[in-house]
């Protein structure tokens, strides 16, 4: 491994692999969730300094959604940082984060459909070697409102049949 690699990256090691996703979007009302399935491949890149995430799923309006993200740990600043791009947005989204117990909290800004910048918080909880959950909320009138949740379940890569 690259000697520049920080110990903070070791916390991300369980995320490496192929994952099936189940996304629940709340669309403004927790009583009317919209669910979609997808897949993600997470791998190390640039000598193990960054986790790369390649997503294929379904967007908020039912259209195909492709995403590409990077997450690293800046050992000098002592924080996580990353970027996200997707076919569902025209801008690059930057974020930074920190650990709170077993959760990785990521925070940044992104524009809504009207171009108004809004603050978001994503909480990533690694529940075990085969499952993790990301919950994203937006700051609305001084309180966090959950927008969507993604449950990642390790994909069955065993192709043998009985």
Describe this structure in words.
There is one protein chain. The protein has 162 residues and is mainly β. The chain has one domain: Calycin beta-barrel core domain (Lipocalin, Beta Barrel), CATH 2.40.128.20. It contains no helices and ten strands. It has a ten-stranded antiparallel β-barrel with strand order 1-2-3-4-5-6-7-8-9-10. Strand 5 and strand 6 form a beta hairpin. The mean pLDDT is 89.
How is this fold's topology laid out?
Blueprint: E1 17-25, E2 34-45, E3 50-58, E4 64-74, E5 79-86, E6 93-100, E7 103-111, E8 117-128, E9 131-140, E10 143-154
Antiparallel strand pairs: 1-2, 1-10, 2-3, 3-4, 4-5, 5-6, 6-7, 7-8, 8-9, 9-10
Task: Write a concise synopsis of the structure shown.
By secondary structure, this protein is mainly beta. The chain is built from no helices and ten strands.
Order of helices and strands: EEEEEEEEEE
| The CATH C-level class name | Mainly Beta
* Radius of gyration, whole Å: 16 Å
Tell me the CATH superfamily. Answer: Calycin beta-barrel core domain
% residues in beta strands: over 45%
User: How many angstroms separate the termini?
Assistant: 39 Å
Fraction of helical residues: under 10%
CATH-defined fold name: Lipocalin
Number of helix segments? 0
Overall structural class, as computed from helix and strand content, comes to: mainly beta
Mean pLDDT: 89
Shape: globular
Low-confidence stretches: none
Question: How many β-strands, per DSSP?
Answer: 10
The largest sheet has its strands arranged as 1-2-3-4-5-6-7-8-9-10
Query: How would a crystallographer describe the biggest sheet?
Result: 10 strands, antiparallel, barrel
CATH architectural category:
Beta Barrel
Number of domains: 1
């Amino acid at each position: 491994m690259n000697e520049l690699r920080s110990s903070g990256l070791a916390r991300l090691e369980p995320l490496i692999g192929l994952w099936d996703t189940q996304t629940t979007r709340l669309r403004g009302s927790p009583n009317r969730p919209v669910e979609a399935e997808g897949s993600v491949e997470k791998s190390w890149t640039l000598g193990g300094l960054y986790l790369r995430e390649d997503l294929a799923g379904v967007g908020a309006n039912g259209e195909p959604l492709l995403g590409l993200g990077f997450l690293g740990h800046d050992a000098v600043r002592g924080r996580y940082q990353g970027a996200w791009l997707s076919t569902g947005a025209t801008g690059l989204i930057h974020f930074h984060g920190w650990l709170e117990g077993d959760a990785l909290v990521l925070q940044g800004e992104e524009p809504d459909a009207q171009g108004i910048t809004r603050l978001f918080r994503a909480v990533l909880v690694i529940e075990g070697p085969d499952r993790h959950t990301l919950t994203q909320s937006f700051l609305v009138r001084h309180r966090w409102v959950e927008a969507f949740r993604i449950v990642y379940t390790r994909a069955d890569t065993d192709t043998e049949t009985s």
